[in-house]
């Protein structure tokens, strides 16, 4: 393990294999279907989540932050593995109580160097920051420098996702009933973004095709350093990736374009049939 360990949570949508390869520890958040509760990515895989999410008459899934004790346990594991400091990058505090649990977990280890970073984002918005942190740590970067850089680079992130409906955001309490009703009445395919840690509607195209085209335009409006394509079943993430690369021909190394199936921590809030991405714009 690098001298500085990088920790994030399952709302990052980082695939477990990719996180492990980068040396990133993931704290699983909680997802519940009725009375059945699971640790995301540990007791409930992304594929199994979507099978249950789209099953007829399935109860609406709910999400919750992990306990401070869960964070403390992960932090202790990192130190036991040889880390001298930790940078812990999490979903926006305005969207989840996760970062509060992380901060309490940190307070349980007062003699340890643990820096908690609010990504101001979700999904691969925080995932990309965690990856940047892991790369800096692998090069020997210190915890203070890594935390400062990640806090700075979050200004270069943008997230745009075309939804099939606003109903899931309403059920999850991330938007108001009035906002959702407008989308339903107009029969639009809303495009959401995150601004100042809050979910906003970036545009309201009338068809899936127009929404997809608009998301591509929004994501590629500035020079890009990295792109993470996001999708939920049955949307075709690979086709969207090809379309994005065609727009960016010669401007972005395909190796810097990944595809993530949105997982159990974010999926309940956006629902099936979504496609979009997170970009880290170049400086």
Task: Write down the secondary-structure element order.
Answer: EHEEEHEHEHEHHEHHEEHEHEHE
Shape: globular
State the low-pLDDT regions, or none.
Answer: none
- CATH C-level name of the largest domain: Alpha Beta
Please state the second-level CATH architecture of the largest domain. Answer: 3-Layer(aba) Sandwich
Share of helical residues: 25-40%
Strand content: 25-35%
Task: Note the total helix count.
Answer: 11
Q: What integer is the average pLDDT?
A: 92
How does this model look, in words?
This protein is an alpha/beta fold and about 280 residues long. The protein has helices spanning about 15-20, 45-55, 70-80, 100-105, 125-140, 145-155, 165-170, 175-185, 210-220, 235-245, 265-270; strands spanning about 5-10, 25, 30-35, 35-40, 60-65, 85-90, 115-120, 155-160, 190-195, 200-205, 225-230, 255-260, 275-280. It has a six-stranded mixed beta sheet with strand order 10-9-8-13-11-12, with helices on both faces. A four-stranded parallel beta sheet has the order 2-1-6-7, with helices on both faces. Strands 4-3-5 form a three-stranded antiparallel beta sheet, with no helix packed on it. Helix 10 (about 235-245) links the parallel strand 11 and strand 12 (about 255-260). Helix 3 (about 70-80) packs across helix 4 and helix 5 packs antiparallel against helix 6. The longest helix has 15 residues, at about 125-140. The protein is globular, with a radius of gyration of 18 Å. The two termini are about 30 Å apart.
């Amino acid at each position: 393990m690098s001298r500085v360990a990088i920790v994030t949570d399952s709302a990052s949508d980082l695939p477990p294999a990719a996180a492990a390869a980068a040396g990133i520890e993931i704290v699983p958040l909680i997802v519940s279907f009725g009375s059945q509760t699971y640790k995301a990515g540990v007791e409930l895989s992304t594929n199994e989540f979507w099978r249950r999410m789209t099953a007829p008459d399935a109860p609406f899934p709910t999400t919750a932050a992990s306990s401070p004790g869960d964070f403390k346990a992960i932090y202790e594991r990192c130190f036991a593995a040889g880390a001298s400091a930790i940078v812990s990058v999490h979903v926006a505090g305005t969207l989840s109580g996760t970062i509060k649990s992380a901060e309490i977990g940190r307070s349980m280890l007062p003699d340890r160097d643990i820096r908690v970073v609010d990504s101001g984002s979700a999904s691969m918005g925080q995932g990309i920051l965690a990856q940047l942190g892991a790369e800096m740590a692998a090069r020997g970067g210190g915890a203070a420098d890594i935390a400062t850089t990640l806090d700075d680079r979050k200004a270069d992130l943008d997230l745009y996702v075309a939804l099939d409906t606003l109903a899931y955001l309403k059920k999850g309490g991330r938007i108001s009933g009035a906002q959702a009703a407008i989308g339903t009445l107009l029969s639009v395919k809303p495009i959401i973004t995150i601004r100042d840690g809050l979910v906003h509607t970036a545009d309201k195209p009338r068809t899936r095709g127009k929404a997809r085209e608009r998301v591509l335009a929004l994501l590629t409006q500035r020079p890009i350093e990295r792109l993470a394509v996001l999708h939920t079943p049955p949307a075709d993430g690979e086709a969207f990736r090809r379309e994005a690369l065609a727009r960016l021909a010669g401007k972005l190394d395909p190796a810097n374009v990944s595809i993530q199936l949105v997982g159990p921590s974010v999926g309940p809030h956006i629902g099936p049939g979504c496609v979009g991405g997170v970009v880290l714009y170049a400086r």
